[in-house]
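Form 7-S
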Amino acid sequence: MNQRRISIAAPVFCGNEKKYVNDCLDTTWVSSIGKYVDEFEYKFAEFCQVKHAISCSNGTVALHLAMLAYDIKPGDEVIVPTFTYVATANCVKYCGATPIFVDSDPETWNINPKLIEKVISPKTKGIIVVHIYGHPVDMDPIIKIAKKHHLFLVEDAAEAHGAEYKGKKVGSVGDIGTFSFFGNKIITTGEGGMVTTNDNNLARLIRQMKGQGVDPNQRYWFPMVGYNYRMTNIEAAIGLAQLEKIEWHTKQRQRIANHYKQRLSVDPRLIIQPQMSYAKNSYWMISVLLSNDMPERSIVMNRMDQKGIETRPFFYPMHVLPMYKENQLQSSFPVANSIYLRGLNLPSSGSLSNEELDYICDSLLECVK
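Output:
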């Protein structure tokens, strides 16, 4: 067929996005105050089955606010999976603290719960888990570890809108959840983030910190150093419209994942991220591992690109990045190293047709020969 270029994760606007944004423009409520901010927060909390959802300017900020809420400071340590996007480690570094990395589980690619206690020290204050590419972490054993050692537990759910762990929405299982609404996420506000929690005190503190630290009862009185981490009413308007259609968005991701699984199963050397029995994967990205006997990933990506198909490599593990490489032994993270070297993300936009998915699958099967 005459194939257009297929991007990795184009957003889909199929609801009230234009209507709500035009309402912001018509009423001139375009900054961080407005009805859409309040409504988006209320509806997102309802969706995640939590008491509080606090909007902010992006997913990295959401993580930073979580660290600030727990007063993370120089000398502290926070446990982080090495296989994640860089923001998960950077939010700890912003506070002058040290991220301590843990290798991946070979089945889910998430943080390996069995390795966490080995790196706990007197300096450890908390754990950040990441629901990588939309698959929930096995939370129960980590919750037990956190309680045993009196550590906080933050869920980085930037990639996992709508994913579930044992029937509970991610972002509601740990002490705090954080989300991103970047343009390639399952639902988007362009940029934007959200912090979720059931803790009233944490919610109050995070809400105050993200708004310059202003006293909520006394205008222009600032009892603390805060941050301008607010979401705009326009962004929230887009987010609310997206959230109204989130069941459609998540069903499209499931359709796409099922299509890939069915078509690519003819080559058992292609390993798609599995879905464990305790999990409902939101499939932010359809992620596959290439077998060692296939061409190198860069070769496969170049071949796909020539066919008009955008793909992406997996994230670099944190322990190989220049600012985190010191004191981290690469041999200590064999699973993450292997996953990174062989991992490939395929187009995952909810707008993909079955015909386009067939073309992608046919092309991949040809490119890995």
